[in-house]
């Protein structure tokens, strides 16, 4: 690669929490990965609120701002776009970005279900633009290491697994009825929000899911109304008018992996909840093989539990701290014990996205991965209605772990 830094013009759509995270990731990229020779340039940010546009310019460092997201897509200095708007705008903006010929990094869920997501896929494929999806947990060094353990056969034949993504961010019954609880705005509830991440992790480490039998439940069926554009879904409203919650708080499924998966034929259970009392962000999984097993929990992101071997004096799990040599850990910290954080995973995501954009390695998640996860989540809802197993339509060109 040339020693001359390659400048990449960045546009941002929506300056909320995730928009800020994306911006910090772009800014950190030359510091953490100077060898890439990529210098992101924050060109223009769009939001519907002027105070957020001002924040993007005055604090985040964008050169200019706008209240109209199409200005970002039409800006000739913008090469790539981060789409961090609410769910119900993802498909509209993703399709518009593709038609404008802009590579885009979009947060999940890409659409309110598989139909929306597939529409973005069609537009991106037609335009030939690079895409990347906000499946950040796959970039944790422990996850990357576990993916290697499975692929190398060190765990033997994978037999079964279980994953649990439990959070408490909606556990308060008087939590505001934000857009996240309204189907026409959010689509599904915890399926699109947390389960999408968990499904993607299984696809990424072990291979695509082929069959699903699922169940969903809404625990808090009504919530107090929140004025659109005011506050966040963390707000608590006492004594307000209540309206129905239109999507699920909990989802569970029994799954079987596809015959072409690295862990072909393995079976497992996956669960997600946004109303659990106790877990803060307990996003974890266990994977079992004939020669060993692994466990990981995001709340202890910088360690994993590993057991390899069935004989000897020292059987059972060993606590392993991630260190240089595990994924991208060495780019952030010099040794085990000094941990990485959530934002660091987004820096890795930015790296993979921009490397793919400039025509180097394509190890980033892509729109096809988003479609694959959305199809599984839609199948859970269909299974809930029919009380039957649902087979998943395979997705081409994903980054799922498959047999070579």
TrEMBL record:
The keyword NAD applies. Residues 9-135 form the Gfo/Idh/MocA-like oxidoreductase N-terminal domain. Gene3D superfamilies: Dihydrodipicolinate Reductase, domain 2 (3.30.360.10), NAD(P)-binding Rossmann-like Domain (3.40.50.720). This is Putative dehydrogenase. The keyword Protease does not apply. GO terms for molecular function: nucleotide binding; oxidoreductase activity. It comes from Rhodoluna lacicola. Keywords: NAD, Oxidoreductase. It comes from the Bacteria. Residues 144-294 form the GFO/IDH/MocA-like oxidoreductase domain. It holds the Pfam family GFO_IDH_MocA_C3. Coiled coil: none annotated. The lineage of its organism: Bacteria, Bacillati, Actinomycetota, Actinomycetes, Micrococcales.
């Amino acid at each position: 690669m040339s020693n001359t830094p390659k400048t990449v013009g960045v546009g941002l759509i929506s300056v909320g929490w995730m928009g800020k995270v994306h911006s910090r990731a772009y800014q950190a990229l030359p510091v953490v990965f100077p060898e890439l020779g990529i210098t992101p340039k924050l060109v223009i940010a769009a939001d519907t609120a002027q105070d957020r546009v001002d924040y993007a310019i005055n604090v985040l460092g964008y050169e200019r701002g706008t209240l109209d997201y199409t200005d970002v897509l039409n800006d000739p200095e913008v090469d790539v776009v981060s789409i961090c708007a609410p769910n119900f705008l993802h498909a509209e903006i993703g399709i518009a970005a593709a038609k404008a010929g802009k590579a885009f990094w979009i947060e999940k869920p890409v659409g309110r279900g598989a139909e929306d997501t597939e529409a973005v896929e069609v537009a991106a494929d037609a335009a030939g633009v690079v895409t990347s999806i906000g499946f950040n947990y796959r970039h944790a060094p422990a996850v990357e290491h576990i993916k290697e353990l499975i692929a190398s056969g060190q765990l033997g034949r994978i037999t079964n697994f279980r994953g649990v993504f439990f959070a408490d961010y909606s556990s308060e019954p008087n939590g505001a009825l934000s857009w996240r609880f309204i189907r026409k705005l959010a689509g599904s509830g915890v399926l699109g929000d947390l389960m999408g991440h968990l499904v993607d992790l299984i696809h990424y480490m072990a291979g695509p899911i082929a069959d699903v039998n699922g169940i969903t439940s809404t625990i808090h069926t009504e919530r107090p109304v929140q004025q659109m554009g005011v506050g966040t879904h963390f707000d608590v409203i006492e004594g307000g008018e209540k309206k129905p919650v239109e999507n699920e708080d909990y989802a569970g499924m029994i799954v079987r992996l596809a015959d072409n998966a690295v862990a072909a034929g393995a079976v497992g259970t996956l669960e997600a909840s946004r109303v659990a009392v106790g877990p803060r962000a307990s996003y974890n999984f266990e994977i079992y093989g004939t020669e060993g097993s692994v466990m990981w929990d995001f709340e202890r992101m910088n360690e994993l539990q590993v057991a390899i071997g069935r004989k000897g004096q020292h059987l059972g799990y060993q606590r392993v701290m991630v260190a240089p040599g595990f994924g991208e850990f060495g780019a952030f910290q010099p040794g085990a014990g000094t941990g990485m954080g959530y934002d660091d995973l987004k820096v890795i995501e930015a790296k993979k996205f921009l490397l793919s954009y400039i025509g180097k390695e394509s190890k980033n998640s892509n729109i096809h991965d988003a479609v694959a996860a959305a199809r599984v989540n839609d199948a859970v809802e269909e299974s809930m209605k029919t009380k039957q197993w649902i087979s998943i339509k395979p997705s081409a060109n994903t980054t799922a772990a498959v047999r070579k």
